[in-house]
Recover the amino acids of this structure.
């Protein structure tokens, strides 16, 4: 029995580069050092122990999520997008059943000159999120945007602004225009057939 998505033709593969994850691993290491050290070496009061223990859990979760990202492979396919990782279950979104596309920008400075983007796709198969640290993020967004235009999906104003900032609005407009032309041609041919039969 073939698993859904296994017959999809892979066009490209994308990974989170180590240089994009190094900072997260460094922050995890510092967090573990500042929590595990005092817990094991110092005689701290109970309230402080609870706080340090909770912080330890937070840093462990953060480190585990970083490991998941490192093991993640994103595959752009002819029929959709697949995300596979050794530490997480496979996720997939079919272009045919994609229902929502959101592109958000998260700023790390008040002047919004630095930050990252997050792409979220929702479909009948589930949902997935990718951030701009992954290699080929623009290609992934462009591909998803193309099919969003073909499907005639309604996009939020924030998403449209971020697509324009990435220079991807023309691709969306062209895909939507082609889709509209195809639907128009289909209806025209249908009417022609009806007229022929009526005569």
């Amino acid at each position: 029995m073939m698993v859904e998505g296994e017959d999809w033709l892979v066009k490209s593969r994308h990974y989170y580069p180590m240089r994009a994850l190094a900072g997260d691993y460094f922050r995890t290491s510092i967090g573990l050092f500042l929590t595990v050290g005092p817990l094991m070496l110092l005689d701290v009061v109970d309230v402080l122990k609870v706080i340090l223990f909770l912080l330890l859990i937070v840093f462990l979760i953060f480190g585990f999520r970083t490991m998941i990202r490192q093991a993640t492979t994103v595959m752009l396919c002819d029929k959709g997008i697949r995300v596979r990782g050794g530490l997480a279950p496979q996720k997939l979104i079919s272009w045919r059943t994609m229902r929502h596309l959101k592109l958000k920008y998260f700023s790390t400075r008040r002047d919004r000159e630095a930050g990252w983007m997050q792409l979220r796709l929702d479909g009948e198969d589930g949902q997935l999120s990718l951030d701009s640290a992954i290699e080929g993020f623009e290609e992934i967004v462009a591909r998803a945007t193309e099919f969003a235009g073909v499907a005639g999906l309604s996009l939020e104003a924030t998403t449209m602004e971020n697509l324009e900032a990435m220079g991807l609005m023309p691709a969306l407009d062209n895909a939507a225009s082609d889709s509209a032309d195809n639907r128009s041609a289909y209806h025209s041919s249908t009417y022609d057939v009806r007229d022929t039969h009526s005569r």
Observations:
- The longest helix spans residues 169-198.
- The chain has two domains: 15-70, 86-199.
